[in-house]
Every structure is written in structure tokens, then in C-alpha cells.
Amino acid sequence: MTATATKKKEETKEKEIDEMKKDEKQQLDGFTLEEFEAKPPTPDIRIQKKTTTIPVKKPNCQQWFKTHATLAILVHLILYKEDGEYYLVHPAMLPYFAGHAKLFKLYLGINFPSGNLFLYPVQQPDADGNQNSWHKSSEKVILAGMEKWIQQVPEKDVGGYSINEPSGNLIDIPFPEVDMKEVVYKAFKDKIIKDINHPVAKALLGM
Predict the structure, then answer these.
(1) Is residue 53 part of a domain?
(2) Strand boundaries in 43-183, DSSP class E
(3) 0.70 exceeded by the pTM?
């Protein structure tokens, strides 16, 4: 290859490199880093968690939870043994389910750290004022849970629950703004017995 050809090839290569640098500069000039920089969340920007299903249950011994200080309601429920689920009973249906439907108080609770809501069912005293020790103990657990995060631990030898408190400072998770009408509907939905045509009503009545 002649010296002239070599020089021409080098010049062409240098020109290509210059063009590449020019393109990179143009691309960089068109890139605004500020558009992609994440900003710390502000009080005006909040993610709201929408709850679609609310279980009716007592927390297990490993779950941390709190209970709402005011949101609670008295209702009649049937604990259907076949599936272990609670069913909400309309007052007009109570004559059909003597011995099955019991008076319960439903307390709104929230789990840590998920923030998931649940309804804590506590069976109330019967017509004679009798209430077993487990249900009485649950009421004490509910009161404690209105003040702080707790765990409830069943103690069979005493017929009730002991209460664990966290050894550290668990962050506060506020209750969302809900009312009991919304909560109870989401908790029961298709588990509401308003007439004898409900499948559980038919099963209990032998229909």
C-alpha cells in the first residue's frame, strides 16, 4: 500500500471517529438526567392500599396486630363447621337457626407489617350472661391491642390468652379510613344468610 493510500485511510478513520464523537455529544445533549432522577416522596403523594377481601379470624400466635379503638359491631354469626367459615345472619332468619346462630362482636384489626385488615370475632355472653374464659380473654386482648402492637398466645392450662409485646419499636401503621358497612360487606359478601335459599341455610335445615 502506498504512503498516500495509507494516509487517506487514516484520515477516513479519523473522520469516522470524529463523527461518532459528534453523534455521542448530540445524544448526550438531548439527554436530561433530571427527567429520570427519583424525587423523595412528599406528603402530598401517597399510595393508598385498597382492600378487596377482609378475613374474619383470630390472629395466630405469631402475628403482630392492633385493634381499632372505635370500629366494632354486634352481629349474629354462624360458624359453619364444614368449611370453618363465619356466615352473617339476618335477624329475620334467627328463628330458623336456634342453636346455630350466636351473638358476636366484630372488632376491626390490622396486621403488622402487611397492613392487611381483618375482623376479630368474639362470641358474646348468652341470654343468661354466661361467657367462656376464652371469649372473656379475647376481650382483654382486644383492649390491649387498641394501645399497641401485640401477639396473642393461647394458654390451654389457664383457658385464655397471654399477650406478647414487641421488644423493639415497631413502626406505626395507621388504619385506613373505612366504615364498618364497607368492612362487613367485604368480609362476608356471599356469606350472608338473608333467606333459606342460601346453600348453608339449606344444609343446616336439611333441605
Answers:
(1) no
(2) 64-80, 85-89, 101-112, 117-123, 151-155, 160-164
(3) yes
Least Cα distance to 51 among 145, 150, 119 occurs for 119
Burial class (CB in 10 A: 0-12, 13-18, 19+), 150: buried
Give residues with Cβ within 8 angstroms of 149, minimum separation 6.
Answer: 64, 65, 66, 112, 165, 166, 170
User: Is residue 51 within 8 Å of 153, Cβ to Cβ?
Assistant: no
Kindly state whether residues 148 and 197 are assigned to the same domain: yes
The rounded distance, in Å, linking the Cα atoms of 31 and 81 is 64
* pLDDT tens profile 59-113: 999 999 999 999 999 999 999 999 899 999 999 989 999 889 999 999 999 999 9
Calpha distance 147→65 (Å, rounded): 11
What residue type is 123 in one-letter code?
Q
Phi/psi at 95 (nearest 5 deg)? -60, -25
Residues 6+ apart with CB under 8 A from 82: 203
Contact indicator for 122, 104 with CB cutoff of 8 Å: yes
How many structural domains is the chain composed of?
A: 2
> Measured between alpha carbons, how far is 134 from 72 in angstroms, rounded to an integer?
19
* Same-domain pairing of 84 and 142: yes
Parent domain of 90: 64-205
Buried b / exposed e along 41-70 (16+ C-beta atoms within 10 A): eeeeeeeeeeeeebebbbbeeebbbbbbee
Same domain for 107 and 201? yes
pLDDT computed for residue 20 by the predictor? 72
